[in-house]
């Protein structure tokens, strides 16, 4: 998730990237940075890709990704979550780089 300045403040962009191809699979923009923003974006990615086997979902340790709503969603869709080390953005370098060039 990254913020984007707009006329009256900020909006938040959630992006799901394919680590192999580095393509954007799904994205959503909202005025609040919530777990539902992440879950909706992830559901869009799953609907588009329709994965046949379990996948790894890598992210930072933001509260949206570690919320109590996230674990059941991941389990329901056979997703294994991988978290970056605390305070170590280099574990998520692909996404950090994407937002850098986007902005």
Describe the structure.
This protein is α+β, with helices and mostly antiparallel strands and 103 residues long. Helix content is 31%, strand content 30%. It has three helices and five strands. A hairpin with a 6-residue loop joins strand 2 and strand 3. The longest helix has 15 residues. The radius of gyration is 13 Å and the shape is globular. It starts with a strand and ends with a helix. The mean pLDDT is 92.
Give a nutshell description of this structure:
The chain is α+β, with helices and mostly antiparallel strands. The protein has three helices and five strands; from the N terminus they run E-E-E-H-E-H-E-H. Strand 1 and strand 2 form a beta hairpin.
Radius of gyration: 13 Å
Mean pLDDT: 92
User: What coarse outline follows from CA principal-axis ratios?
Assistant: globular
Order of helices and strands: EEEHEHEH
Biggest sheet, strands in spatial order? 1-2-3
Beta percentage is 25-35%
The unreliable regions are: none
Number of DSSP-assigned strands: 5
As a percent range, the share of helical residues equals 25-40%
- Quaternary status of these chains? single chain
Structural class: alpha+beta
Per DSSP, the total helix count is 3
| Terminal CA distance | 13 Å
Biggest sheet: strands, sense, closure?
A: 3 strands, antiparallel
